[in-house]
Amino acid sequence: MLFRTPFNGYAVKFSPFEEGRIAVATSQNFGIIGNGRQHVLQMGPQGLVEVAAFDTKDGLYDCCWSEENENILVSACGDGSIKVWDVQAPAQANPLRSFQEHQREVYAINWNVTRRNLFLSASWDDSIKLWDINAPQSLATFKEHTYCVYAAVWNPAHADVFVSASGDCSVKVWDLRQQRSTLSIAAHNYEVLCTDWCKYNDCVIATGSVDKSIKIWDVRSPTREVTTLLGHTYAVRRVLFSPHAESIVASCSYDMTVRLWDVAAPEDALLRLWDHHTEFAVGLDFSTLTEGLLASAGWDETVHVWNQNTDPRAA
Amino acid sequence: MASQGVPQRAQDRQKILLEHLRPVEAPAAAMSQSHLEANDCSAGDSSSYERRAASLDDVVVVSALRTPITKAKRGGFKDTPADDMLAAVLKATLQRTGVEPEAIGDIVVGSVLGPSSQRANECRIAAFLAGFPETVPVRTVNRQCSSGLQAVADVAAAIKAGFYTVGLGCGVESMSLNPMAWEGGVNPKIANSKDAQNCLLPMGVTSENVAAKFGIDRATQDKMAARSHARAAAAQASGRVKDELVPVETTWKDPKTGEEKQIVVDRDDGVRPGTTPQQLAQLKTVFKKDGTTTAGNSSQISDGAAAVLLMTRREALRRNLPVLGIFRSFAAVGVDPAIMGVGPAVAIPAAVKQAGLTLDDIDLFELNEAFASQATYCCKKLGLDEEKVNVNGGAIAIGHPLGCTGARCTATLLHEMMKRGSSARFGIVSMCIGSGMGAAAVFERGGETDNLRNVRPVPKQAHLSRDAAV
Question: What GO MF terms are annotated (chain A) (predicted)?
Answer without folding.
Answer: peroxisome matrix targeting signal-2 binding
